[in-house]
Amino acid sequence: MVGPKIFEDISSKLSELAANSPARDLEKNVRAVMASAFTKLDLVTREEFDAQREVLSHALTRLAELEHRVAELEAQIAGRGAE
Q1: For residue 22, which of 13, 30, 12 has the smallest C-alpha distance?
Q2: Contact criterion met (CB below 8 Å) for 18 and 24
Q3: What is the pLDDT of residues 49-63, one digit of tens each?
Q4: Which of 4, 14, 37, 64 lies 20 to 30 angstroms, CA to CA, from 30?
Q5: If DSSP states are collapsed to H, E and C, what string results for 4-20?
């Protein structure tokens, strides 16, 4: 009869083979190449993107307010010149 020790040995050998398989090496290499490619790209995280979008939205709102204020001041100046 085969003892439980043999099943453990077979299981550990199979796990070892799976960890050292060419497919595993290929996966590691592909991940490394992709990580390197993404590092070279000028990418940002979603959090950074959302933060910049919020800053831009605030800047556009402020710009609209300032344009309106300049238009009011120009109208006041033009009104004084007509007097």
Answers
A1: 30
A2: yes
A3: 999 999 999 999 999
A4: 14
A5: HHHHHHHHHHHHHHHHC
Place of tokens 């933060």: 51
CB 9 within 8 A of CB 15: no
Indicate the length of the chain as a whole number.
Answer: 83
Low-confidence ranges of the chain (pLDDT < 50): 1
Residues 3 and 37: their CA atoms lie apart, in Å, by 50
C-alpha–C-alpha distance, residues 29 and 52, integer Å: 34
**CB half-sphere exposure, 48, CA atoms < 13 A:** 4
Give the single-character DSSP code of 47.
H
The answer to whether residues 47 and 53 touch, using CB atoms and an 8 Å cutoff, is: no
**Entry pTM:** 0.50
Instruction: Give Cα 60 distance to the centre of its chain.
Output: 24
